[in-house]
Amino acid sequence: MSVAPRLVILDTDPGVDDALALLYLRARLDLKLLAITTVFGNADVETTTRNALWLRARLGLSAPVHPGAAAPLSRPRGRAPVHVHGENGLGDIDLSGRDLPPPDAGAAHDRIVELVRAYPGAVTLVAIGPLSNLALALRAAPDIAGLVAGVTIMGGAFGRGNVTPYAEANIHNDPEAAAEVLAASWPVTLVPLDATMACVLTDTAAHDLARDGGDAGRFALEVTRGYAAAYARHEGLDGCVLHDVAALVSLTAPELFSPRFAPVAVTTEGERAGQTAWAAGDSPTRVLLGVDGPRLAEHFGQAIASAD
Ligand code: BDR
Ligand code: CA
Question: Is Nucleotide-binding a UniProt keyword of this protein (predicted)?
């Protein structure tokens, strides 16, 4: 008996690991991509939207791409992490030679509202960038909180952060938006750095994928070279971290994760801005604090290779 695929809107700031998340989505028949909504983060929003359009063409996807927030809700945009994702946001691979269409009609947060209302109870929002679009959607239409199947977020850090000692990038990029999204009464799953830093695609695995994993494997190796070099330089890692892929795998292979249920607050002021911390209150978040990282990386490789 085949089960209907889960409907997903991917809110994203591509981004090298965002590109890997799209590769994974393409491979999974149990996930149906309804729309790609873009946000600033790994680059400015014009660049992340161009990257989403480029990835859609490169990977043969058909979902619409809707441009979203260019800046946080209430503060200036921080500097883009070009030392991690490259000047073009996709590891400085060659993006020339493709005629890209303009983005699809409709702003990201409007389309999120329309699609959630069109498929009540069925849409999972997967946010792998700053949470500005989700917060704007909630502000415009608070009823969507009761209409989503769930909200899965790559973000937060309960141990060490990655942009400051306290904060993870997606939350740090728009702490006010994150605070609103985490305070709303919808079912949120947070996949924080504490888990994602264990999800490493090693250099050996990436080269094996390029050899045995068809076009998807070759693309995964190509797009991750600069990103892996940055992780080697800054973290001493052999390989690159599958942050955004982990958010999607939490939907398809939840048994790889260990959850904790507790309310989460976001600090919005001072040097700890963007920090996530356990809080009091009665709207618990499902926080996936632990993961079997090697199994997740292996699962990712098998999924993208077998789809080609
Ligand atoms: C998150 O920040 C971005 O740089 C990555 O794409 C990921 O979504 C990791 O902190
Ligand atoms: Ca991202």
Answer: no
Render the chain in DSSP notation, one character per residue. -PPPPEEEEEEE---HHHHHHHHHHHH-TTEEEEEEEE-SSSS-HHHHHHHHHHHHHHHT----EE---SS-SSS------HHHH-TTSSTT----S--PPPPPSS-HHHHHHHHHHHSTTTEEEEE-S-SHHHHHHHHH-GGGGGT-SEEEEE---SS--SSSSS--HHHHT-HHHHHHHHHSSS-EEEE-HHHHTT-EE-HHHHHHHHHHSHHHHHHHHHHHHHHHHHHHHHH--SSEE-HHHHHHHHHH-GGGEEEEEE-EEE--SSTTTT-EEE--SS--EEEEEEE-HHHHHHHHHHHHHHT-
Catalytic residues: 13, 243
Q: Which atom of ligand 1 is nearest to the CA of 129?
A: 8
Question: Does the model's pTM come out above 0.90?
Answer: yes
Pocket test for ligand 1, best of 11, 12, 13, 235 (most atoms within 8 A of CB): 13
Give me the residue spans of the domains in the chain: 6-307
Which protein residues are within 6 Å of ligand 1, measured from CB?
15, 17-18, 42, 81, 128, 154, 162, 168-170, 243-244
> What is the block-wise mean pLDDT of the chain (308 residues), using blocks of 10 residues?
89 98 97 98 98 98 98 94 94 96 98 98 98 98 98 98 98 98 96 98 97 97 96 93 98 98 96 96 90 98 90
Domain 6-307 maps to which CATH number in 1.10.630.10, 3.40.50.960, 3.30.1540.10, 3.90.245.10?
Answer: 3.90.245.10
